[in-house]
Amino acid sequence: MKPETTFDSLLAALAAAAEPTRLRLLALLSEAELTVTELVTILGQSQPRVSRHLKLLVEAELVERHREGAWVFFYIAPGGAAALVRDILARLRHQDEVLTADRVRLAEVRRARAEQAARYFAAHAANWDELRALHIPEERVEATILDLVGSAPLQSVLDLGTGTGRMLELLAPHAVRAIGVDQSPQMLAVARARLEKAGLRNVQLRQGDIYALPVERDFYDLVVIHQVLHYLDDPARAVREAARALRASGRLLIVDFAPHAEESLRELHAHRRLGFAGEEIAELMQEAGLDVIERRDLVPDQGEGKLTVSLWLGRDRRIISDPLPLTSREFA
Fold it and tell me: Do residues 131 and 187 make contact, with C-beta atoms less than 8 angstroms apart?
């Protein structure tokens, strides 16, 4: 069913979009969630001018915003008249000079984000696990992970943003095969040393982008995203990519912080998001074709840090038919 909107809302939306800067903003926000500062950098216009245009787009319900601490993120609205605007944007000539230049500067903004995160990961690869002491003890989190995953043997496990490889160390003994993906060579070096020390021979490590995974599609019966989403500029895209790796009835486990106000994590540790509300993760999973089958919130006891850790377990809606064999090709 096509989304419907009122005559007045549609007229206001079309009027708001029919201006060069605002159309450029809509094109950018259809590709990424961006702050005013990032949009000013891309458009080369003043902050007051960009803010004024964003205000008009928000009032026309074409753009939505959410505040996290000192930052405000803008993104194109998911429904209503914005659906028509998305169709209009899809019809724009991809090689348009103005939009092409905007995409180039958007890529530069994204590259700067990635470089900031890469510098941080490289500087902290050796003591990554120690930084997790900011929240409840890892033992409580890991016990809950094992409880959610259950005791049934796993054929194939995929750990995204594997970091030091701790999730692989925890889950690989229960699986025939386990894969860890991370973008940082330094992190992969730490993970490799850890897994070799643990004597795990059914694990492979791959350098790759969480938005374009170097793994099989429709294959894994468990995918894990452990304390990774808060670093990403597009969590929804990462969840969709993770869902594509799942076999029918496969499960996705997301572990991250509940919403909090620890601004220092953004300033000192490159966190882009200050936690996720339960309904937000549920919506991301729903949009990726998954149903949330269980959620748990681990609230810290006295002396266990400040941050609540939330765990969401989702299941692929497709019905499993036959067990998925592991062939020699899939091990190659």
Answer: no
pLDDT in tens, 256-297: 999 998 888 887 778 889 999 999 999 999 999 999 999 999
Domain range enclosing 291: 128-331
64-90 confidence digits (pLDDT tens) = 887 756 778 888 887 778 888 888 888
**Residue 241 near residue 288, CB atoms below 8 Å:** no
Going by C-alpha positions, the residue among 130, 121, 108 that lies closest to residue 270 is 121
pLDDT in tens, 26-78: 999 988 778 899 999 999 999 999 999 999 999 999 998 877 567 788 888 87
- Residue 284 sits in the same domain as residue 171: yes
Please compute the mean of the pLDDT values over residues 22-26 and round it to a whole number.
Answer: 94
Q: Which of 66, 92, 118 is the last residue of a domain?
A: 92
What are the strands, taking DSSP E only, across the chain? Answer: 34-35, 63-68, 71-76, 154-160, 175-182, 203-207, 220-226, 246-257, 290-298, 309-316
Domain CATH number, residue 79: 1.10.10.10
CA pair distance 72, 159, nearest whole angstrom? 30
Specify the number of domains making up the chain. 2
Q: Tell me, yes or no, whether 87 and 133 share the same domain.
A: no
Strand order in the sheet with 154-160: 203-207, 175-182, 154-160, 220-226, 246-257, 309-316, 290-298
